[in-house]
């Protein structure tokens, strides 16, 4: 059965890299949620201004729509999905979505952001993202994992956790 998966977390957690690698291993379609942002959102973030909920709702609905149409092999989307209400908006369109929260400590995140040239999201917004982050709750479908040890090791841990979650 095709899966709908959101690899989520703050900027620098590894959403895009891990999401792409996970999609490749699952032979699923990959979408980088950043590419779904309207240009106004990108300009706002690039100038160091955090998005408001009003900025995010159309984007989140588009993420949910992409997951709901999916592909026959499944879809993995890299998307921050920092708040429960954001994940709920995605689940409204794609109720069977599984969320994978990538976590890392602030120094590791900051280092990753400084080594990511050309990305529109400045490291200055990391603090606001960490303050906004609401971890997955017990009634949400998904797992939380430390994004340490490299992309392959992180993907392997995710795949093991997905198998365990499916068994329960």
TrEMBL record:
Pathway: Carbohydrate acid metabolism. The keyword ATP-binding applies. Pfam families: AAA_33. GO terms for molecular function: ATP binding; gluconokinase activity. Belongs to the gluconokinase GntK/GntV family. PANTHER family: GLUCONOKINASE-RELATED (PTHR43442). This is Gluconokinase. It comes from Pseudarthrobacter phenanthrenivorans.
